[in-house]
# Entry
Amino acid sequence: MFRKIAHSTFAIIVAIFAFISTAYAQPDGKALFQSNCASCHNPIKESTGPALQGVSARVPSKEWLHDWVKNSASLIASGDKYANEVYKKWGMIPMTPFPNLSNEEIDAIIDYVETYQPPTAAAPAAGAAAEGAAEENTWLYTVITLVLLVFTIILWRINHALRRVANEKEGITNQKDIPVYRNKVFIAIAAILVFIGAGYWVVNGSVEMGRQQNYIPEQPIFYSHKVHAGINQINCLYCHSGAEKSKHAMIPSTNVCMNCHKQINEYTGEPLYTMEGKEVDGTKEIQKLYEYAGWNPEKKDYNRDAEGNILAKPIEWVKIHNLPDHVYFNHSQHVAVGEVACQRCHGGIQEMDEVYQFSSLSMGWCINCHRETEVQFADNNYYSIFEKYHEEIKSGKRTGVTVEDIGGIECQKCHY
Ligand code: HEC
Ligand code: HEC
Ligand code: HEC
Ligand code: HEC
Ligand code: HEC
Ligand code: HEC
# Structure
């Protein structure tokens, strides 16, 4: 009888854990969409690629979707009819392959876009609903944990009682019963659990503090990188000239904007939308720029006070990327010396109406890239001091040099 109880308990506990892990292992469709697809797709608007809402109904099958997202080029090459149709319709722009996404992750992304709703007037409600769902999950988790705990205690008591009965039968005298809360084993286990839980929470919280992947703040002017760096092909360095020459890429001053916007006083391009799907009036946004710059478009001159000083105020752009103070990161080292493209770290900025933080900026992110990336060694003067590597390459002993090889994962290179 005792064995039977133990067996069925075990089965129940396994079932409960299986339930918890399926409930919790679900990939986050929204985050996956934003970090992988949002540079080219919007759920409800055409962008570089088609609007994805309704896609499940358009495509031949779910498997087709998996194959397409993992590698659209091979599906097109295989002669698949629908794949070739979409490809032609979109001007034969190849879509990035995502061989690393699992079928579950792709399904989660599709679920997200299919259920996506542009928050119009009811925006706060939609946000609250999403938060509500997250809260419900936490509740579920807490309740299950509590049930499990009570269950364990009951079983333990049953076990205890059974042993007493058995002892009595065999004529062994039982020790006096100690109440649970004074039981030393119980107190020790509880103390250890609390300690581990609190420790995990504190350490995790402090490591993640300040991390903000996918952060997308609202800016004082709806300035679109897609309009400027994408459609109008303005070079990143025109505005972020620091990236090539110094530690900081820097945000351009209002004067840089006015180089062009003294002339360009209205927006005539494609309609603009915020991430939430609200339409933006580009011309009004340019008016905002004029207010900051102190420019009077009718007089075609700056507003000045009695002494002739321009009446301007700085635009307070909200900073998005922010490394902790103990980390040393230098743009020119990566952009000029390493010849790393901005997009490898910042994503497809030229496709973003609103900039968001594409990478995690965690230490693992820096180190992984330093391990994998080969420096452009051959004809780069900066590396002439590494004679040993040059000789090894000449003699064929070595095919390439990674950032790690030149010391890129030594602690003091990145930490003050
Ligand atoms: C580099 C830009 C780019 C990225 C990133 C991208 N796509 Fe695409 N996608 C396209 C283009 C362009 C098309 C249209 C077909 C073509 O030209 O290849 C397309 C087509 C599609 C289609 C077929 C749509 C239809 O109407 O039948 C699906 C599904 C799709 N993409 C899903 C995704 C998912 C999911 C992601 C993220 C994991 C993603 N795409 C990331 C550019 C991109
Ligand atoms: C016409 C000027 C202009 C051009 C061209 C431009 N940017 Fe920007 N960039 C800005 C302004 C203004 C901001 C601050 C507002 C914002 O975040 O949208 C900014 C913000 C950014 C940020 C976020 C900064 C932060 O706060 O962390 C990144 C990253 C960035 N730009 C990268 C690029 C890249 C990459 C390109 C080229 C593909 C580019 N920019 C082209 C003006 C420009
Ligand atoms: C090299 C020229 C150039 C520079 C520099 C420039 N712009 Fe623009 N801007 C344009 C062009 C071109 C358009 C698109 C006009 C159109 O399509 O009708 C535009 C459109 C806009 C719009 C309306 C569309 C949108 O993005 O919301 C705003 C607002 C704007 N610019 C703000 C700025 C700000 C702020 C800066 C400085 C950080 C700046 N621009 C720097 C050329 C420039
Ligand atoms: C190797 C990765 C990497 C590359 C390549 C890179 N950035 Fe950055 N960028 C970062 C990191 C990390 C930060 C945050 C820096 C900080 O907080 O000190 C950042 C911050 C920025 C900022 C915010 C202002 C600042 O200087 O802190 C801008 C703007 C920016 N980058 C633009 C660019 C442009 C434009 C390029 C290409 C010419 C580029 N970045 C290339 C990693 C990169
Ligand atoms: C996309 C790849 C990539 C990422 C991400 C990246 N780096 Fe680098 N890093 C490079 C390359 C390539 C070089 C080699 C350029 C050179 O020799 O200076 C380099 C060089 C460096 C160096 C100089 C190393 C030396 O031995 O001279 C430092 C310091 C550095 N990176 C810091 C960082 C930090 C901090 C981060 C994260 C915030 C980061 N990097 C993220 C690619 C990357
Ligand atoms: C390529 C650059 C790079 C190198 C090399 C590097 N770190 Fe870091 N480290 C970072 C960055 C970036 C962060 C900030 C991460 C964040 O904000 O979460 C960080 C954070 C930390 C933290 C704070 C805890 C955390 O995760 O945020 C500690 C401790 C640390 N590093 C220790 C080390 C030690 C020890 C080494 C040498 C074995 C080392 N680092 C080498 C880039 C680097």
